[in-house]
Write a structure and sequence with these properties.
about 120 residues, mainly beta, 11 strands
């Protein structure tokens, strides 16, 4: 059974930084894609960034230039470095992992709140 556990969320002022981590039970090298999604109140869950096994990354326009996604297979951990945070980045951030057969695993989420 795969478990994804996010950490690193919190309250930060606009312009500040946070680093989210997603620790996965077992190895993460089996996941073809891992990513971060977020869901703000009253809005749909949206992709923030993802990364493939080869290191190819993909970012939402809102995250480009401010956020950096990375994965450390040796530590079984996915990261999201978030800089220059804005109030509109406030949301619950979820870790996602996708298997080669397109099955998706989700973490429980971590709250990020950016004050103006």
């Amino acid at each position: 059974q795969v478990q994804l556990v996010e950490s690193g969320g919190g309250l930060v002022q606009a312009g500040g930084s946070l680093r989210l981590s997603c620790a996965a039970s077992g190895g993460i090298s089996r996941f073809v894609v891992m990513g971060w999604y977020r869901q703000a109140p009253g809005k749909q869950r949206e992709l923030v960034a993802n990364i493939g096994t080869g290191g190819t990354t993909n970012y939402a326009d809102s995250a480009k230039g401010r956020f950096t996604i990375s994965r450390d297979n040796a530590k079984n951990t996915l990261y999201l470095q978030m800089n220059s945070l804005k109030p509109e980045d406030t949301a619950v951030y979820y870790c996602n992992a996708q298997t080669p057969l397109y099955f998706n695993y989700w973490g429980q989420g971590t709250q990020v709140t950016v004050s103006s």
